[in-house]
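input
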Amino acid sequence: MTDPWAFGWTQVFTLSGLVITVAIAIAGFKTFDKWRREKLEEKRIEVAIDALALCYEARFIFDGIRSPLAFAGEWEDMPEIGPDAERSQRGAFFATLKRIRASKDFFDRAWKIQVKCAALFGSQVEDTFLLMQKVRREIEVSAEMLMHDPRPQDTSPENQRLWQKWRNNVWAVTNDDAVSTQLKRLREEIEKLCRPIVDHGCR
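output
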């Protein structure tokens, strides 16, 4: 009778099969891990490019919103507010609000890219993207205030400064106003984060 504990070819084949199976599994895991890292890097590069493109597009969007040139057609649907003599003054600020509404798609895309960037690059990037939404809101509030009251009734220095601040928020007359400074900071921070990722991926 054959001893079942005796080492023979059956055991050799069994052990060989086990070793081969383990080796294939390890190789498979390594291949999957490499594939996963490559896919993640591709996604990082894709999102970084989208963030940079949005950042550069923001310049044109905000230049359009903040243009001091407004045409009568932009405020023809403005509701009646105050004396007719002030309608053109109010209309210039209504035009700004209308341009912001017309750019809704851009700001919606900004929110979506912000979420992707936070997931891939860390939650701290949210603060950078929030600058864009904060600037939009500052322009919006300033335009609403000026549309309802284009000139301060109280001519005290404090009120004059406040109205001038609102005008500076609405209109891009200089490149060093508070809104322009924040948009510049946004561009610099996005470039600092995303440019190395894009450049590294292109090598």
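quick obs: The chain has a mean pLDDT of 83.
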